[in-house]
Automatic annotation (TrEMBL):
Protein name per Swiss-Prot or TrEMBL: Carboxymuconolactone decarboxylase-like domain-containing protein
Pfam families: CMD (PF02627)
Start and end residues of each Carboxymuconolactone decarboxylase-like domain: 38-116
InterPro entries linked to this entry: AhpD-like (IPR029032), CMD-like (IPR003779)
Lineage summary: Bacteria, Bacillati, Actinomycetota, Actinomycetes, Pseudonocardiales
Transmembrane segments: none
Record-level Gene Ontology MF annotations: peroxiredoxin activity
Amino acid sequence: MARVTYLTPETAPPAVASTLAKMPQLHVFQMVAHAETAFRPWLKFGGAVLADLAIDPLLRELVILQVGRLAARYEWEQHVPIALAAGGTAEQIEALDRGELGTFDPGSRAALEFAAALVRDGEVSDENYAALAAEFSEREIVEIALTAAHYLGLARIMTALRIDPDAPAGPDGLPAARLERPSAG
C-alpha cells in the first residue's frame, strides 16, 4: 500500500490540478504531483527524455527496462509495451528480463551494462565505458546516462513511497514517448 495518497485533479492543489487532469491517470503522476513546484518541471524533463534525445527510441526503452528490472518493476511493466512499439521484440524483452545480454548488438549491450552499473553503485568500469564510447557519441553517452539516472531516481522514490502497480498505459497512454528513430542531421 502506498505511503502517500494519490492525488486526482479533484484532490490536487490548484497549482497542479489542471496539469494532472491532462496526464494519464497513473499512480506515478498522482504521487509526484504532491511536489507542487517541481511537478511541471519534472514532467518537462521526463518529456524531454522520452521525446527529445538523439538516442534511438528502442535503446532508450531498453535502458529504462534495465533500470526497471533492477530497481522498480513498475517501470518495467509500464515500458515493455512502449519498447515493443519502438521496435523491440518479445525475445529481446525476455532475454533482458533474464539478464542475458549476449543476444543484443554491441551498442545495446554496452548501454545495458552501463545502465546496470549506474543502478548498482555508479561505478562504470573502464572496459564498459570503452565499449560504450566505441558505439556512441559523447552526446549519446550523456543521454543514456540521463535516461538511466532519471528512471533510477524515480525508481528509488517509487520504492520508498511503495507505489502500487498500474496497468500498463502503453504508447497510447504516454503519447510523449517518441517511437521513431531520430532523423539524421
